[in-house]
Amino acid sequence: MGVLKFLFRVVLWAILVVLILASWAFWQTYSHQNSQFTGTADCAVVFGAAVWRDDIPSHALSDRMQSAIGLYKNDQVECLILSGGKSTFGAHEVDVMAKMAQEYNIPLKDIVRDMNGINTSQTLLNLEDPTETSYVMVSQAPHLGRIAHLSRRIGIQNYALHVAIPIRWQRQQFDNFFKNEVLKNMYYAFWISPKK
């Protein structure tokens, strides 16, 4: 009987921990949904996303770039840090992003290419000066909570968040991504930043 009571308590505690963790992850994902950057910073960081066939940026990537370009054109940032990985179908994500920036007449000197930004944490780890440079992190709304959490864990001191305006990205995608991001935030709650 004592063993059963012990196991029952263990299960209850496990359920409680999961509920607390899930609540924190939901809040972390939800709390940054309306982040709009209105100040000035050194650079906008654009996180990579899928590139389709014929080197066409996906809706998510296109919206991120449009929003970052808008910040640059409004003199809110002085440079764009384009970070991504290899594409499944064609050109590297960063090459597609850089091409889009150049189509909007962003000077090459104001474009920084990070070809090794294979995921969110790696993009943040690749930032060269996380304590002195100010950054604006640009991505879709569901991603910003995880970006904020990882930025703090890595030690990036001066950053802001900016929701990529959904020009092509649809509401259905938002709902799916929101659910995924809650799960990812539960995982990253225990993430330990590797040494740079």
Brief write-up:
This protein has helices spanning 2-30, 59-73, 93-103, 120-125, 141-154, 171-188, and strands at 43-47, 51-52, 56-57, 79-83, 111-114, 135-139, 159-163.
Q: How would you describe the overall organization of this protein?
A:
This protein has 196 residues and is an alpha/beta fold. The protein has one domain (29-188): 3-Layer(aba) Sandwich (Rossmann fold), CATH 3.40.50. The protein is 47% helix and 14% strand. It has helices at 2-30, 59-73, 93-103, 120-125, 141-154, 171-188; strands at residues 43-47, 51-52, 56-57, 79-83, 111-114, 135-139, 159-163. The strands form 2 sheets. The protein has a 5-stranded parallel β-sheet, with helices on both faces. Strands 2-3 form a two-stranded antiparallel sheet. Helix 1 (2-30) packs across helix 6 (171-188) and helix 5 packs parallel to helix 6. The longest helix has 29 residues, at 2-30. It starts with a helix and ends in an 8-residue tail after the last helix. The model has no long low-confidence stretch (mean pLDDT 85).
